[in-house]
Amino acid sequence: MGSPKRAADTLGIEVDESHPQFVTALARGLAILRCFEHGAPQLGNQEIARRTGLPKPTVSRLTFTLASLGYLNYSASLEKYALGIRVLALGHAYMKGTDIVGLARPLMLELAEYAKGAVMIAGWASAQMILLDICQGDPDFHLKLEAGSRVPHGATALGRAYLAALPMEGFESALAGLEKDCAAASWPQVRDGIIRARKDYEQYGFCFSYGDWSPDVFAVGVPIIAADRSRILSLNCSGRISVTTRDKLIHDFGPRLVALRNRLFEMTGGRF
To answer: Sign of the C-alpha dihedral, residues 78, 82, 85, 86?
Structure first.
């Protein structure tokens, strides 16, 4: 029999509750934790049910279980839940086990200062990228982002770099998933940008975002792929359009970002 293949063959491939390996109860519990991602400090079962689309009795059982395990805290006076300390422990464990972020930071800061812009490293999380770190190189150009911030796949150099590095099956599956989360009127333009970025990656070794996410910002992005192809992270370099021209991205910042990526791969041996 054997177990289903994982690693590179499953990167970017959307799965749902019909998959034989999918545990629905676990997915629902994690969906409840995600309700707190956008700064909601406390939520009651009714609001959680509304946000997740789950029946309130199911939410009540899951929030009770999560609180019992320390992933939620319950306030009896407010009859609401907040994230528990064990969620922070998981995030800390992740960062401790990801040496590449600490190794990348001085290299990212050097490039950010050279480019007078921002350099970021991010990982895939469903329909968005989550920033693992950001280095700002110009006090007059300061992106309002920090570690943990989310940015979209389709319009950013970070997201496009991730998508460009996917094997074809994963790429097509990721596109299908992104289309579900995108407004129908916007999808053709978003899709065209992603397809163009994949072609740019094949031609240049990096891809671009020319004001597609923020109209005042141009950016270049590259993926860094683990040696066993089980994981992809993305790096980008972005700056004001008055300084970060297309020519600069192609002939200067892009090659420097590729060199940074290659240096990180050497330092980690491709294990991250």
So the answer is: positive
Backbone angles phi, psi at 105, to 5 degrees: -55, -50
Contact 223, 164 (CB under 8 A): yes
Domain 7-89 fold is Arc Repressor Mutant, subunit A (1.10.10)
DSSP 43: B
Rounded to whole angstroms, how far apart are CA atoms 96 and 51? Answer: 31
CATH number of 98-268: 3.30.450.40
Q: What is the pLDDT of residues 132-187, one digit of tens each?
A: 999 999 888 888 898 888 898 889 999 999 999 999 988 998 998 889 888 899 99
In angstroms, rounded to a whole number, what is the distance separating the alpha carbons of residues 253 and 111?
A: 8
Q: Are strands 232-240 and 207-210 parallel, antiparallel or unpaired?
A: unpaired
Q: What residues does CATH 1.10.10.10 cover in the chain?
A: 7-89
The predicted model scores a pTM of 0.79
